[in-house]
Specification:
There is one protein chain. With about 425 residues, the chain is of the alpha/beta class. Helices cover about 35% and strands about 20% of the residues. It has 14 helices and 20 strands. It has a nine-stranded mixed β-sheet with strand order 3-2-1-4-5-6-7-8-9, sandwiched between helices. It has a seven-stranded mixed β-sheet with strand order 16-13-12-17-20-19-18, sandwiched between helices. Helix 1 crosses helix 7 and helix 10 runs parallel beside helix 13. The relative contact order is 0.09.
Length: about 425
């Protein structure tokens, strides 16, 4: 996935374009950049800002969009009215979703948006944005609403959507003691997403949040799932922050390779031809376990399901460790005997599907749920563990596929196994 980040240059890499590139890389995305201003700052102070010319900004945007397929655009520091007008002129007719992080001041005290440019930001940039992600102070300034209680959050977000933004996320409100929450509004529904408050201050969390939100929106996730994902990503980045200089800690997005690989495989799965015909009634999950995982809490999966919506397949939920029980348990059971098997997906049972796997010389195993003992039936999540154990008990090498034909009230199912999500997807694609 390609992201275009438009913003200021931060030589400390704590925020700005440099931070955007680090966050995108951690999420498995490629990040192009357009520089709007050159700043001089470090972890202690912000000492200088110089805007790039409007001609240069326009040329940079043209150079990227004329050559590369960009899925999403993020905008950070815009500094002055001239910059805002230059960006608006190039993006006002684009169909690419735009995420605006309306930064006004840096955590080190620097001015990132001149006072006389606020009006232009509201009139020219906010109306062309899919989502804006102000912090509380920024939301107050842009909406004209003082935020002192939960109801004020809704008033502020409503005011901001009236300016043209489709979605608003007010980040980092602390209206509940001991918590730091994000308030999400999509023009109709609203939700406050709570989180743990970490001690101390840091530099770069806002940039991390905006990039993470943009990634999920580009994948056509709803704004609430996108905000939840971004919050977790930002929380992890803050936890990993480092004191590289003599001032504030700088966030360091940690790269979870499991998440990047599974997310990309799910995206590819969603785009497989007529894959909706293979989604079972109980829906689908796709998982990826850590090496030598001991519990479902060490298995990454979709917290909801991958669901069928007409002829489309949509992921409803976030990627979380512990997000799956059924398919995760199947992988854990396989790992006990075949440690290299770390990934799996469940699909709809069909005899023709099994025959297609057989023609490809795939290794197939099965079990009969009618033979399951009562003790296993009565214990939650024991049925899948019992079934997979039965299917592999006499095997010396791991099967590619395990299936069962169901039981009373239990849907028949096929589970495809592999060493990685890409391996699983490759096996599935061969029978389509």
């Amino acid at each position: 996935m390609n992201i275009l980040a438009i913003g200021g240059s931060d030589p400390s890499s704590g925020a700005g374009i440099q931070s955007d590139i680090l966050a995108a890389k951690a999420l498995g995305a490629n990040c192009f950049s357009v520089i709007t201003a050159i700043t001089a700052q470090n972890s202690k102070q912000f000492s200088y800002a110089e805007p790039v010319s409007a001609k240069s900004i326009g040329a940079q945007i043209d150079s990227v969009l004329s050559d590369f397929d960009v899925s999403i655009i993020t905008i950070g520091m815009v500094y002055d009215t001239t910059t805002i007008k230059a960006i608006h002129a190039k993006l006002k007719n684009t169909k690419i979703p735009i995420i605006l992080d309306p930064v006004i001041k840096s955590t080190t005290g620097g001015v990132l948006l001149k006072k006389d440019a606020i009006s232009a930001l509201k009139k020219l940039l906010i109306p062309i944005c899919n989502t804006i992600t102000p912090n509380v102070a920024e939301a107050e300034l842009l909406s004209g609403t003082r935020i002192r209680k939960p109801s004020d959050l809704l008033l502020a977000t409503k005011a901001l959507t009236k300016l043209g933004a489709k979605n608003v996320i007010i980040t980092g409100h602390a209206l509940e003691r001991g918590k730091i929450s994000d308030f999400v509004f999509d023009g109709t529904r609203h939700q406050s997403i709570p989180g743990k408050k970490l001690p101390g201050k840091n530099h770069g969390s806002g940039c991390n949040f905006a990039i993470a939100v943009s990634l999920y929106i580009a994948r056509k996730r709803n704004i609430f799932d996108s905000a939840q994902f971004a919050k977790q990503f930002t929380y992890d980045s803050i936890k990993s922050s480092q004191r590289l200089g003599r001032g504030l800690k700088i966030t360091r997005p940690g790269k979870d390779q499991n998440q990047s690989e599974l997310a990309e495989s799910i995206r590819r799965f969603e785009n497989l031809k007529e894959i909706y015909t293979h989604i079972p009634e109980c829906q689908t999950n796709f998982v990826f376990a850590k090496p030598k995982a001991k519990s479902t809490g060490e298995v990454l999966g979709v917290s909801g399901r991958i669901v069928k919506a007409g002829t489309q397949v949509i992921t409803a939920g976030n990627l979380e460790y512990g997000g799956s029980k059924h398919v995760a348990t199947a992988v854990l059971t396989m790992q006990k005997k075949f440690p290299k098997i770390r990934s799996a997906i469940n699909i709809k049972y069909d005899e023709s599907t099994i025959k297609k796997f057989a023609k490809l010389s795939a290794k197939i195993a099965s079990y009969n749920r009618l033979q399951e003992p009562k003790s296993s039936r009565q214990k939650e999540n024991s049925s899948i563990s019992w079934g997979v154990s039965q299917a592999i008990q006499n095997l010396s090498t791991p099967p590619d596929v395990i299936y069962h034909r169901g039981d009373f009230g239990k849907e028949p199912m096929i589970i495809i196994f592999g060493t990685t999500p890409s391996d699983v997807l490759q096996k599935l694609a061969k029978i389509l």
